[in-house]
């Protein structure tokens, strides 16, 4: 039976007024008070099963857990996890959301691959469940509690208009609502993005080396076990009076698997933060695009005011005042949108620099330290056993 993973509830980013507010959130995004956990959340992804009912086989991952609202249990496909992550990234632009493992077309039903994917999907759920405004959302609750057809629930959900998104961000991230970005904060963000990108590149290279080392070690461990057994048999031919006695080698846990698992989860974790930072720069690009719309519409308005109209406007034969009024409305709409994008960009930048990134770094050193110590301890144990075997063989000849 799969172990249940405890997820400590994190409240540092939670505004205590969020779930009690009268503000009207869009459907499926509003944090629901009934899903606000009163204690720790338990959530896990179990061993997948293969569904053979359809023409194309696919894996089902059982999700189980409980919180203060009760127990939950449901099966989800990989594409359901992908849909959840896509919707969350649309609704929470510029916010950290861990990545999920990439899609794979060939060999995606092999046992080793399914086990690897299960670990990474569980990592995604555990990390996401620690984000209060996401865990309490209807979308996340529908994912872990039902209905079965999750894709149907989220298929129609797109990115919110900036004019609506800004109010949500001001309330959820109230600590960053008054943050105003400047050249220094922008430069700091770019430096962090560059540092993370370099780290990701190194981690991806390390993943490849770890994968080969895991495979090589497994082969080495089995072969060296057989080698000592064969040596005993061969010895009878050459030394009748000496018997080689050494302890039978046990197949220990591959010490390189721990590093490989850590590398893979770190890649997903860092990718989620890189995505959030990139969203901040995408918001700045959206500002420029909206500002261009305003300039273009103002030029259009100026032409209307001096009596110039395009072919369509001439055919429609509406009075000049009608088009001038419409142009003024469009300018006002774009200006409001620009103000909202600027506000969201500042909130995102403040939240990333002052909360998300510092919090992201917390505990990383401790996890890394534990991983390295676990690896070195297992490696030392492995080598000590090999030394002991060789000494036992050597003693037979003394």
From TrEMBL:
Residues 182-209 form a coiled coil. The lineage of its organism: Eukaryota, Sar, Alveolata, Ciliophora, Postciliodesmatophora. GO terms for molecular function: phosphatidylinositol binding. InterPro entries: PX_dom, PX_dom_sf. The keyword Nucleotide-binding does not apply. CDD domains: PX_domain (cd06093). This is PX domain-containing protein. Keywords: Coiled coil. Residues 39-151 form the PX domain. It comes from the Eukaryota.
